[in-house]
Amino acid sequence: MSTTLICVVEAAPSLGESLADRFRLEGFDVDWHTDGEAALDALRNRPYQAAISDIRLPDISGEVAPSTLSRGVS
After folding, report:
1. pTM, full prediction
2. CA 50 from chain center: how many Å?
3. Separation between Cα atoms, residue 6 and residue 73, nearest integer Å
4. Strand positions, DSSP E, 1-74
5. What gap in Å lies between CA 13 and CA 16, rounded to an integer?
6. What is the gyration radius of the CA atoms in the chain, in angstroms?
7. Could you give phi then psi for residue 31, rounded to 5 degrees?
8. 56 exposed, middle or buried (CB, 10 Å; 0-12, 13-18, 19+)?
9. Which whole-number Å values give the CA distances from 63 to 24, 35, 54, in the listed order?
10. What are the angstrom distances between the C-alpha of 45 and each of 8, 14, 57, 64?
11. Phi-psi sector, 27: left (phi>0), alpha (psi -120 to 50), beta
12. Which of 25, 47, 48, 54 is deepest in the core (most CB within 10 A)?
């Protein structure tokens, strides 16, 4: 049985850790990224079923990531 893989993008350590821990407790596999560029790289290379992102990241807007990925921009 495969589990759902979730990408969590959150720059604040306490919130990112809390989100990742909670999803893991619920049985999900979670990758937690603290910046947008790392998250974009992971989203391009891993088979995530869901992504949850802060919209105020230190390097890019969390609102930019979905549109960047949907356009296939590297």
Report:
1. 0.81
2. 8
3. 21
4. 5-9, 29-33, 50-53
5. 5
6. 12
7. -110, 130
8. exposed
9. 25, 13, 8
10. 15, 26, 20, 18
11. left
12. 54
pLDDT in tens, the chain (74 residues): 468 999 999 999 999 999 999 999 999 999 999 998 899 899 999 999 999 988 888 888 766 666 665 555 44
Structure tokens at 52: 């949850």
What single-letter amino acid sits at 74?
S
Give the DSSP letter string of 12-32: SHHHHHHHHHHHHHTT-EEEE
Contact of 62 with 17, CB cutoff 8 Å: no
